[in-house]
């Protein structure tokens, strides 16, 4: 394969690793397997990512970034005033986040597996914590922005609302991965209703 600058090779390797892990699980993502996935020498993976922590951190960054970008893009340019407008906007963004999962569930599975590994590995846990906090801050900023646009006074701290939603959404995804019984749409609606009530009424 022709020489590719490191700046281009890094995202290629991250994507190859995610694709491999989405199909076969995180444990299958050895440097040898990732190199084979992209058709490069194993040394290329070692050179690009000095440690497993670096590789896992880059994977988490890519996956978290995809979710954040998708939800931010779905934020309405102009919301209807009042609680109804706030609720409708939250519903749109929650639906977009669900669509991100539903279109490529294997990528969420990789994130979940890395989270489990991170609970036992302090190096990986640090990378996961940083990106978890980034997602929470972004969600809190979206909630604050929606409240300002709709004229709603938040009765609960925006960061607490963001954490509550992300915890609920993660649980919904985990259940859907095991029991795809068609209840997810109604459950997502209930989660949004709970979020709106927490935000507006406390």
UniProtKB/TrEMBL annotation:
Keyword DNA-binding listed: yes
DNA-binding region ranges: 30-49
Domain HTH tetR-type: 7-67
Protein keywords: DNA-binding, Transcription, Transcription regulation
Keyword flag Hydrolase: no
SUPFAM superfamilies listed in its UniProt record: Homeodomain-like (SSF46689), Tetracyclin repressor-like, C-terminal domain (SSF48498)
Protein name according to UniProt: AcrR family transcriptional regulator
């Amino acid at each position: 394969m022709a020489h590719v600058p490191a700046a281009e090779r890094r995202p290629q390797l991250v994507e190859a690793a995610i694709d491999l892990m989405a199909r076969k699980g995180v444990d299958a993502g050895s440097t040898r397997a990732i190199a084979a996935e992209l058709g490069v020498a194993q040394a290329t993976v070692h050179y690009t990512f000095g440690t497993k922590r670096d590789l896992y951190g880059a994977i988490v960054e890519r996956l978290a970034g995809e979710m954040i970008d998708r939800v931010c893009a779905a934020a309405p340019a102009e919301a209807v005033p009042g609680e109804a407008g706030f609720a409708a906007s939250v519903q749109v963004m929650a639906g977009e986040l669900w669509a991100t999962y539903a279109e490529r569930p294997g990528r969420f599975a990789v994130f979940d597996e890395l989270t489990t590994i991170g609970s036992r590995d302090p190096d990986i846990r640090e990378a996961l914590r940083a990106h978890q906090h980034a997602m929470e801050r972004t969600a809190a900023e979206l909630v604050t922005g929606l409240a300002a646009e709709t004229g709603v006074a938040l009765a609960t701290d925006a960061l607490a609302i963001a954490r509550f939603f992300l915890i609920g959404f993660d649980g919904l995804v985990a259940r859907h991965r095991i029991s795809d019984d068609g209840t997810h749409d109604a459950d997502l609606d209930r989660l949004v209703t709970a979020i709106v009530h927490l935000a507006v009424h406390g």
